[in-house]
Amino acid sequence: MKLLCVGEILVDMIAEKDCLKDSREFNARPGGAPANVAVAASRMGADVEMAGTVGNDGFGEMLTRKLEEEDVGIDKLAVSDEKTTLAFVALDENAEPEFSFYRGADLEIGEEQLVEGYDVIHFGSLPFTDPELAERLEKYAERSQALISFDPNLRSDLRDREYMDRLKSFIEVSDLIFLSEEENKNFDIDAEEILVTRGSEGAKLLTQDFTQVEKPPEVDAVDTTGAGDALTGTYLAFRDISRRKAIKKAVEASALSTLKKGAMSALPDRRRLENHFQ
Q1: Is residue 277 part of a domain?
Q2: What CATH number should be reported for the domain holding residue 33?
Q3: Out of 8, 87, 162, 238, which could bridge 126 as a Cys pair, Cβ 3.0 to 4.6 Å?
Q4: Number of domains the chain is built from
Q5: Average pLDDT of each block of 10 consecutive residues along the chain (278 residues)?
């Protein structure tokens, strides 16, 4: 299975305190939901490339180097004169993240990065804040022969009517949708395959052939920031073997990812996953 992840690749600035307004120090770590998914899938053995854009700066170099270290292909990764996008993140007492975005290069994804030759193309949602880029990505999805995977990943600070309309339009051309339970209430979805994440209750897979509810193993969560991306990347990596196996492995990987701080840095690899839940 050859996978392309499309969308934001950015730097997570992790706050020292449990709210952004009280924080003065931040740790820089690679992030961005589609980039996290790419790394998660690669660590599970998938053949993955990333289509996104970083700035011509130190942060951009850090992100590019990280993808190379993770064996994620960067032929479709562009470099812009815009600054690399930053996401400032604070974790509350329940290990839930608070975000504040400083946008830049992530909004520049050109036609030359959107090519054929993949079995699955997974899209993140931040590019859909820009009408022109949203239209470009939707046309790419419509003409592609690949399975189209999408995570709307709703954020309260971005939820205006135009943005929601663009997400709903893209959902209509998608084959596989990843949603939280709350997001599932915001959309009327008729996709071939829907994976609903349920936090500490695990996840539910809905297909035209079967429904499967998967409970997670018990863990003491430290940081839930990348848990959804761990689930998505793992599911995509195992999906072509068995969707039933994929949802089980995805829920286990998601649980493991909460045991460390950070998003990308906490993603488990296949060996750790298999050894931990023997």
Answers
A1: no
A2: 3.40.1190.20
A3: 8
A4: 1
A5: 97 82 82 96 98 98 98 98 92 72 95 97 96 98 98 80 93 95 80 91 94 90 85 97 96 91 86 81
